[in-house]
C-alpha cells in the first residue's frame, strides 16, 4: 500500500538514500497517495537520486527532458547527458535511447555504427527492442561496420573510451 510506505520512504529519502529518493520521485510522477501528482517535484527527487549515481533515476531524468515532463521545454542536451550517465552505469533503457538518438540524428547527424554499438550493449542485457534493431541493421551496415561497432561497444563495456566521445569530438572538429 503506497500510503503506508510513504513515511518510511520519505525518512530514508531525507537521509539521502538514493533508492528512496527515486521512489519518492515515482510517487510524485504518478500521483500515488499521499503525494499529489507533480512532475516538477518528481524531477527534483530524480535529480537528487541521479546525483548519487542511481542509473534508473538518471534514465528517468533523460526521459523527462526528452519528453518535456516537468520541464518548460524539451532539452536534447540534458536528456542526452542523463542518458549517457545512466548508460555508463549499464542501464539498458538508456543505452537503447542513445542508440535511437544516434540512429535518428536527434543531437547530431545520424550515425548508424554508433547506434548499432548502443543497441548491441542494450541487447546484451536482454532488451528485446535492441535485438530487433540489431536484426534490422544487418541489412543497413556492412559486416566491417558491424564488426567495428561491436568492437567499440566491447571497449566501452570494459571501461574503455566512451562511445559518445568520438561523436562529440567530431562535432567540435567541424
Q: Quick one: how many beta strands? A: 0
H-E string: HHHHHHHHHH
Largest sheet: none
Shape: elongated
> What is the percentage of strand-forming residues?
under 5%
Rounded to an integer, what's the Rg over CA atoms? 18 Å
**Helical content (DSSP H or I, runs of 4+):** over 70%
Number of helices: 10
Helix/sheet category: mainly alpha
Low-confidence stretches: 165-174
Mean pLDDT: 89
N-C termini distance = 55 Å
Protein architecture, described:
The structure is a single chain. This protein has 174 residues and is mainly α. Helices cover 71% and strands 0% of the residues. Residues 165-174 have low confidence and may be disordered.
Summarize the structure.
Helices cover 71% and strands 0% of the residues. It has helices at 2-14, 18-30, 39-50, 55-66, 76-88, 92-104, 112-124, 128-137, 143-157, 163-172.
Features:
174 residues, mainly alpha, 71% helix, disordered C terminus
Amino acid at each position: 500500500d503506497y500510503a503506508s510506505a510513504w513515511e518510511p520512504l520519505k525518512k530514508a529519502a531525507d537521509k539521502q538514500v538514493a533508492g528512496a529518493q527515486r521512489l519518492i520521485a515515482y510517487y510524485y510522477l504518478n500521483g500515488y497517495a499521499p503525494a499529489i501528482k507533480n512532475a516538477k517535484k518528481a524531477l527534483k527527487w530524480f535529480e537528487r537520486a541521479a546525483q548519487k549515481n542511481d542509473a534508473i533515476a538518471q534514465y528517468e531524468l533523460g526521459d523527462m527532458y526528452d519528453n518535456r515532463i516537468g520541464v518548460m521545454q524539451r532539452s536534447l542536451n540534458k536528456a542526452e547527458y542523463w542518458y549517457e550517465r545512466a548508460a555508463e552505469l549499464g542501464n539498458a533503457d538508456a543505452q537503447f535511447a542513445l542508440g535511437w538518438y544516434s540512429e535518428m540524428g536527434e543531437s547530431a547527424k545520424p550515425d548508424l555504427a554508433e547506434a548499432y554499438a548502443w543497441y548491441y550493449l542494450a541487447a546484451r542485457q536482454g532488451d528485446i527492442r535492441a535485438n530487433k534493431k540489431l536484426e534490422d541493421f544487418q541489412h543497413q551496415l556492412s559486416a566491417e561496420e558491424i564488426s567495428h561497432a561491436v568492437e567499440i561497444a566491447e571497449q566501452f563495456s570494459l571501461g574503455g573510451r566512451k562511445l559518445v566521445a568520438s561523436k562529440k569530438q567530431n562535432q567540435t572538429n567541424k
